[in-house]
Design goal:
Helix content is about 65%, strand content about 15%. It is an alpha+beta fold and about 170 residues long. Strands 1-2-3 form a 3-stranded antiparallel sheet. The longest helix is centred in the middle third of the chain and has 99 residues.
Length: about 170
């Protein structure tokens, strides 16, 4: 098994030459089937496609691992996006509750304002009625005073007295 988790098959020089690889170019390195299904020597892709069950298995396993990594990444991204959606929905619900609370307070304040306005109207109506009564009473007092004066009557110590003119 190599460091990258793939099976390493040691080939003879005859097998390497029959695969189209010049072993003189890669002294000291053993050829192996790479993730792309080609023969590799060290870090060099020979460009020669390996053949047989081992090559097919290596390519299939590499494809499976690549697909699994992509699936795991996609799932992680999906979970992140879902968490973002949940966070946004939680914020939306909190904002809606705050809006409803504000609307309830506004409705209550409007009701209080309407009640206060009705109280003001009632008080104003009573003030107008009282003022009308005061004006009527003043008119009656003026009429009575005018009549008293015409008759020559005067109030002295709370008693009605007749003025007598001396000549």
């Amino acid at each position: 098994m190599s460091d990258n988790g793939f099976a390493v098959k040691i080939l003879t020089s005859a097998q390497i030459i029959s695969a189209g690889v010049n072993p003189a170019l890669y002294k000291g390195d053993s050829p192996f089937v790479g993730t792309n299904g080609n023969w590799w020597v060290g870090t060099v892709d020979t460009g020669v496609c390996a053949q047989g069950a081992e090559a097919d298995r290596t390519v299939a396993e590499n494809t499976r691992k690549t697909n699994e990594t992509a699936r795991a990444t996609a799932e992680s991204n999906r979970a992140t996006v879902e968490q973002g959606r949940i966070t946004a929905e939680t914020a939306r619900v909190a904002n809606e509750q705050a809006r409803q609370t504000g609307e309830t307070a506004r409705t209550s304040a409007e009701s209080n304002r309407a009640t206060a306005e009705q109280g003001r109207v009632t008080a104003e109506t009573r003030r107008v009625t009282a003022e009308s009564g005061r004006v009527s009473a003043e008119s009656a007092r003026v009429a009575a005073e005018t009549q008293r004066a015409a008759l020559g009557l005067t109030m002295i110590d709370g008693k009605l007295c007749v003025e007598v003119k001396r000549e």
